[in-house]
Amino acid sequence: MLAILLAFCVSTLLLICFARLAPRWGFVDQPNARSAHRSPTPVGAGICFALAALLALFVPGVFPAETHSLLLILQSCGLVVAVVGLIDDRFKLPVGVRLLVYLTASIIAVITLLEAAPLLLVGLAILALGWTINLVNFMDGVDGFVGTQALCVCLSMAVISLFIPEAPGITHFTLVLAAALRSNNCKHKIIPFFLLGDSD
Hints:
Layout: H1 2-25, E1 28-29, E2 41-42, H2 47-56, H3 65-91, H4 95-113, H5 119-136, H6 145-161, H7 170-182, H8 187-190
Antiparallel strand pairs: 1-2
Helix pairs in contact: 1-2, 1-7, 2-3, 2-7, 3-4, 4-5, 6-7
């Protein structure tokens, strides 16, 4: 419970700070023909979720020792993708660089999870994860769209993992991710409007 509460509180605090500092740091998205927003809007706040979830992993005694290292590897892959996305939001990285990072992170994550699986399944999973990361980056993140979708996925995974005794700690971790993402839905009340950007 402590890790879930920590993820929510840290994510909310980071979102509030980021939304106010983003314009000073140049993290502002100028609207174009395909944008859902009509005025310059802070972008890149997706990094807040990744940092909050990673911090929650270090709450002592929450996650079983046998899955802690696995979760740390997976969340580290997510953090790398988020950081590269944040850099892209500010400096517009070449497409090839982003795809290379997405693919590398996907390879590490899938091999970590499916090390004993058939090669074909591993290959398909890598392509699916890499494609999903790239697909999410096509979404604006406007009005909590991406955050709400990710929240639904995390809650669904938490329910499914209850029926998989071989995956200790996964239920708690998906709830930690959901708590970090839930703060995104509070933004209209306490956090100025922003876009998650490629760091979501």
